[in-house]
Write a structure and sequence with these properties.
It contains two helices and five strands. By secondary structure, the chain is of the alpha+beta class. Strands 1-5-4-3-2 form a five-stranded mixed β-sheet.
Length: 86
């Protein structure tokens, strides 16, 4: 879990293929991933780890046991590139 007292709220940008991935997860799971990104953007809290194999700057937001969202920090924003069920 990541948390910082100096965290500033961030904007979230979803790439088109990330939106497609969220629709494929279904309404319930897609919304769970979106809520996890909203929490991360607002508070800096979330279950985050680097993507393996390490691609420069890509992180994985884990949502529950099986849902994952993939993102990077770019220009002060959270840019979401994809989501999947593991």
């Amino acid at each position: 879990m990541s948390s910082s007292k100096s965290w500033l709220p961030r904007e979230i940008e979803y790439k088109p293929h990330a939106l497609r991935d969220l629709r494929r997860l279904g309404p319930k799971d897609g919304e769970r991933v979106r809520r996890a990104f909203k929490l991360l953007a607002g508070t800096g809290r979330g279950d985050i780890k680097p993507v393996e194999p390490r691609e420069v700057g890509f992180l994985e937001l884990r949502v529950g046991l099986y849902l994952r969202g993939y993102f990077r920090y770019e220009d002060g924003k959270i840019v979401v590139y994809g989501a999947e069920r593991k």
